[in-house]
Amino acid sequence: MAEAIALIDYGAGNLHSVHNALMAAGAEHVAVTADPDLVLGARRIVLPGVGSFRACYEGLTGIPGMVEALEERVLKKGVPFLGICVGMQLLATRGLEFGETPGLGWIEGEVKLIERTDPEIKVPHMGWNDVRLTPHHGDHDLLEEGEAYFLHSYHFQPDDGLDIAAMTDHGGGLVAAVARNNIVGVQFHPEKSQRFGLDLLARFLEWKI
């Protein structure tokens, strides 16, 4: 199982679709798991997330030893990590949905409601939108520009702009992706983003840190 790609099952992700997308992108083995021991042996880790920040955080921290296993493997051992949608938002210091909830704190910042600056702007932000790289998106070439599928009402605002890898626009700039070392998070859904999303997952499967 040391070769497994661990797709974390904490009751808050579109696991079937993400699993199928990883396989379609070229993965040989994807373990959908809530077992911290398997996470400790995984060579790549994917954290999906659908729903509220609070529910996702409580689901993840409700699995004994899971956060500790993730920190050991990702922060200490440096294996490639991909957070998707709320799985990306959980990287933040805190989320402000239904009151303040702590996050993993791997990338400092907070998750807040998208501001409706124009009556024509709809919240949630739903549908296809551009993904534009920032000048400091990193040199690993994991992310590329294109169009992806978004579905979210809250957005991640990192404290340090250098952690922002890509942006999109929905009545103003919104963070589309964050990156730091071996950690990448995307606000969009690769599993719903057709070829753009599959290409991203394929690069993640080959990503060398």
How many β strands by DSSP?
13
**What is the CATH C level class, in words?**
Alpha Beta
Major sheet: 9 strands, mixed
Order of helices and strands: EHEHEHHEHEEEEEEEEEH
N-end to C-end Cα span: 21 Å
Quickly count the domains. Answer: 1
What structural category do the secondary elements indicate?
Answer: alpha/beta
Q: Percent of residues in beta strands?
A: 25-35%
How would you describe this structure to a colleague?
The strands form two sheets. A nine-stranded mixed sheet has the order 2-1-3-4-13-12-11-8-9. A four-stranded mixed sheet has the order 6-5-7-10, with helices on one face. It starts with a strand and ends with a helix. It has one domain (5-206): Class I glutamine amidotransferase (GATase) domain (Rossmann fold), CATH 3.40.50.880. The protein has 209 residues and is α/β, with parallel strands linked by helices. The longest helix is centred in the C-terminal third of the chain and has 13 residues, at 194-206. The protein has six helices and 13 strands.
